[in-house]
């Protein structure tokens, strides 16, 4: 429990004067795992102090590199809001105050730098880790980390049609879909904050497949910006238009489609492995009709895909897809603008 101090009673006050408790802010304490005896820079949150290495931070982050190259940086207190003051370092080491960053975000980022087993883009991670790495790597130009977490997310929220065929939600999050129902919305918020353009169209698309009631509840819970909320709703209406068109395209299967409609037929059409004209449905029509239907739906699938960025008022795919995504560092920066 946070220690409390009681105001001393003066002689002029009566014995029944009510004393007021004053909260004493808890001081950050040394982190047990990320406090290295040979560390030479201290990061401070409102919860922990992290004694880490200037060389590690500077090697991985251009933002930290520039900051730590400031003249006479040894005995400084640096607030990342831009405030720098002398004489408030930590035992001769620079003290960097992580203003505006949660302790959890700082911890997750440092664990990636110091523990190779903590995170891999090829293994499922928890949603908080994914969100932290996206926020922190974008904010402080940890381009290699940003590249890895973006490629991780692009397996689930792809920017090419072939990627939709290979979507595997189990490869993204631990207990995907069970940690929280609003993970698509949380990821959309952070992807927009970090301006990771390649992820945004399919995040919008997935958010728009939820019911109106769920979208409204989630928008209120996450305090979604009105522009984001309205884009989701308008996009949802446009997807319903394609749903009606899908029924027309699949006219040969219409009777069975109406009797037993799939939950999200547009999603299933895009994720070609679970498309609407599967073997059970096609068995009810002749071979010629089946081929004609399949050809028509292939073309329709491409049409919907090309329309997705426009459905959510994001331009075209070329406007949101990075030019180069084959390597980390400068290449990932080319396709992503710094969030203001």
From TrEMBL:
<dbReference type="InterPro" id="IPR000210">
    <property type="entry name" value="BTB/POZ_dom"/>
</dbReference>
<dbReference type="InterPro" id="IPR011333">
    <property type="entry name" value="SKP1/BTB/POZ_sf"/>
</dbReference>
<protein>
    <recommendedName>
        <fullName>BTB domain-containing protein</fullName>
    </recommendedName>
</protein>
<feature type="domain" description="BTB">
    <location>
        <begin position="39"/>
        <end position="122"/>
    </location>
</feature>
């Amino acid at each position: 429990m946070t220690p409390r101090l009681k105001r001393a009673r003066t002689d002029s006050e009566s014995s029944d004067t009510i004393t007021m408790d004053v909260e004493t802010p808890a001081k950050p304490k040394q982190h047990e795992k990320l406090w290295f005896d040979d560390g030479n820079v201290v990061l401070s949150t409102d919860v922990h102090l992290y004694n880490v290495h200037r060389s590690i931070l500077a090697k991985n982050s251009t933002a930290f590199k520039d900051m730590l190259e400031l003249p006479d940086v040894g005995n400084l207190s640096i607030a990342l809001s831009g405030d720098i003051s002398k004489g408030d370092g930590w035992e001769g080491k620079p003290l960097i105050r992580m203003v505006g960053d949660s302790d959890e975000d700082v911890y997750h980022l440092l664990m990636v730098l110091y523990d190779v087993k903590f995170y891999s883009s090829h293994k499922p991670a928890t949603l908080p880790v994914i969100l932290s790495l996206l926020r922190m790597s974008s904010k402080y130009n940890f381009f290699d980390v940003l590249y890895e977490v973006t490629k991780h997310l692009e397996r689930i929220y792809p920017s090419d049609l072939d990627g939709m065929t290979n979507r595997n939600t189990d490869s993204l999050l631990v207990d995907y879909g069970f940690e929280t129902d609003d993970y698509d919305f949380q990821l959309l918020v952070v992807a927009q904050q970090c301006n990771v353009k390649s992820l945004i169209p399919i995040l919008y698309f997935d958010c728009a497949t939820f019911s109106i009631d769920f979208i409204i509840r989630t928008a209120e819970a996450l305090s979604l910006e009105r522009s984001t909320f309205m884009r989701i709703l308008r996009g949802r209406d446009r997807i319903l238009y394609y749903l009606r068109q899908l029924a027309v395209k699949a006219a040969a299967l219409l009777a069975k489609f109406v009797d037993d409609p799939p939950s999200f037929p547009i999603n299933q059409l895009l994720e070609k492995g679970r498309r609407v004209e599967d073997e059970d449905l096609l068995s009810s029509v002749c071979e010629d009709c089946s081929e004609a239907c399949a050809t028509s739906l292939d073309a329709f699938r491409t049409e919907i895909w090309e329309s997705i960025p426009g459905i959510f008022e994001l331009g075209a795919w070329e406007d949101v897809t990075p030019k180069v995504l084959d390597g980390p560092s400068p290449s990932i920066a080319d396709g992503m603008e710094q969030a203001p």
